[in-house]
Amino acid sequence: MKSLLNGMRRSGTLWLLLILICTVLLGSCGNSNRADTAEATAGNNNETLNGYIRPSEDTYSIDEDSGNIRDGGSQTADNVTESGKAVQSQDKKYRGTYFKDYGVNPFKDVMEQPQSTFSLDVDTASYSIARKYINSGSLPPKDAIRVEEFINYFNRDYPVSSGDTFSIFTEMAPSAFNRGYHVLEVGIQGKEVSAANLKRTALTFVIDVSGSMGMDNRLTLVKKSLKILVDQMGKNDKIGIVIYGTNGRKLLEPTSGDDKKRILGAIDKLEPEGSTNAAEGLILGYDMAYNSFMENGNNRIILCTDGVANQGITKAEDILKMVEDYKAKGITLTTLGFGMDNFNDIFLETLADKGDGNYAYIDTLDEAGKVFIDQLAGTLEVIAKDAKAQIEFDKNSIESYRLIGYENRALEDKDFRNNSVDAGEIGAGHAVTALYEVKLKNSVQEYIGTVKLRYKNPDTDRVTEISKNIKSSLIRDSFYNATPRFKFITMVAQTAEILKGSSWASNTSLEDVYKVLKDEMGDMDLNKEDSEFVDLIRTAVEIKGRD
User: Which stretches does the entry tag as region Disordered (predicted)?
Assistant: First the structure.
């Protein structure tokens, strides 16, 4: 599992997470009456379900002022921000949006800290959210930008080693914008699993049908997205549906994947109603998944929501504990965000982190196709858990470095071989890219560093560690002589840093990035998503010019 809580414990801000989850899950709304049918709803407040306390009728309100701590200053190792508070965004475009500022990584002196350790991450929601903003005519809030999720959104086409779970790829070239610095790319590619070889799958859809889901055709997009996924399921798979508005209830008991008429009929019945009792929906969803658990299969909850929750719950710890307990029993959680007004990014990312799943934001039907068709195996089948990387830089070759992104995935160096520390889960065919900006010394050794990867087999918990040396002979003499995909992905990272307001990108603009892309497009062999990104930057430049 990803390491959000571990990172916050190290920074002494665990209490902020609890405030956050209370804020997110507990919201402000009036009390509601329970439905009478015990088999369809969670029932009375003093009952329990598989040992978990049912939601209470207590209500909460958001009363914390928003505020962030931004970075700034010269390019030195001391120039780093601390994580800001998890607060409501000062968003002029959409109301009630919640994001969190995780700061910006500093440069590290290799003589003092030669190792960089982080949990692998394949979430992509931040890029889709930014795209939604830009296509709607405004730049995204700075706190909405997680640079690694921009980078990992795009296909990198890393080579796959036959028979191995992972392959490691490296490339290095001078920075396009910062003279005297290089960019190191570390790519980790997971093995492919064909659709025919996927394990049997038991999916439980937990769907938010509250009133806010009626805005901007959110529920309509949910229905169309889930139909895409249903089309990929077969007779050996099962699908169940739980919905929640003011109350949670079971809409469809687990049904064979080839009974598409029944499943699609249930999806067609979804209509927005009432307030948002996310806790009750999750409790019922886990109950359904547990009672229909598929041995030696993929057992996963898929939560579809706009991230707003305003109906009662017990305590934040209870929900997180429930998600973690069921994860230990083999039931994982994927979160899908829809809509933007009253959207809570923090809620969805935190739940996915605790549930060993991934978090995506669905802003278009094409994005649903990407998640449920193009990346189906990666969405459903885990090939490694507690996956973490450690890059050790050679003190005789590298003067300093900074990891671009992954601020909320950082691990202590000593925890790389601590098998009890939670880290990331990687699905079949998933690729993870990490970029470092580095300052080389005047002369370099044959090997300038080592990439180490450590992970557990998801079925046996057997730990494997692999490594690869970074050869100095692979360093390109010019940015323009780097591979086309390297040039493209570094422009993606630069764009994200500019949108985030990182001081490390303060000497460049979106116009600069757009010019490089336009100049190099003939060499880049752009696919549909790449071309969309170039168009997105052009639109962002136009928006910035109007502001």
Answer: 36-87
